[in-house]
Design goal:
alpha/beta, 6 helices, 206 residues, Rossmann fold, six-stranded mixed beta sheet
């Protein structure tokens, strides 16, 4: 039976992680630790015999660097898709956690539809993730690697598995740490998703 296998991979440690700032669309590069994490995951994928027809990546450099490493190491073409960019956190981008807490206090409950601080709403992110997944499925039978970010990968997983978006920090989350990944397979004729594997990644903490 025709099937589409999608591997969702989060980038590694970035300079923004060390700077303790809100990342989002802040285009922070990987640290040396992040690069080494990517190399380790590439060797892991090689050892497991992973093959991809295409690597689709967020254009933000912390993801794109990992994607280019994977593409070269696994001999797969790399394509940029802005729908896989991280959640747009608006005015919070690049601010330290301390400064953001002073200037933009966190609401008691972040609504499903509100666009706080000129960023995306929870629903905006969910719809963008669903569109990105649909674009992959329209490619047809094959094996695809997506390199992106924790927020958008969570939204994509919820879209695939039929889990509705929820306000604020409520609902279901998937613990993608540095170079964490999930492997899913879709059967178009049955509209059936299989979750084949999930690895949290390096430097895991929940």
């Amino acid at each position: 039976m025709d099937s589409i296998r999608i591997t969702l991979l989060r980038h590694g440690r970035s300079h923004a992680d060390d700077e303790r700032v809100h990342e989002g669309r802040y285009d922070s590069p990987l640290t040396e630790v992040g690069l080494e994490q990517a190399r380790r995951r590439l060797e892991d994928f090689r050892a497991k015999g992973f093959h991809f027809d295409c690597v689709v990546t967020s254009p933000l450099q912390r993801a794109r660097t990992v994607a280019e490493l994977m593409g070269e190491g696994l001999e797969a073409p790399v394509e940029l898709d802005p729908d896989w960019m991280e959640v747009d956190n608006g005015l919070l981008v690049g601010l330290s956690f301390e400064e953001a807490a002073k200037r933009f206090p966190k609401p008691d409950l972040r609504g499903l539809y509100q666009r706080y601080h000129q960023g995306e709403s929870v629903l905006d992110v969910h719809l963008r993730a669903a569109r990105a997944v649909q674009a992959l499925l329209h490619r047809g039978e094959g094996q695809y690697l997506v390199v992106a970010h924790g927020g958008i990968l969570n939204a994509a997983m919820r879209s695939m598995l039929g889990i509705p978006p929820m306000p604020g920090d409520m609902g279901t989350f998937f613990a993608f740490a540095d170079l964490g990944y999930a492997v899913l397979e879709y059967e178009p004729k049955r509209h059936r998703w299989w979750v084949l594997h999930f690895t949290m990644g390096f430097n895991t903490h929940v």
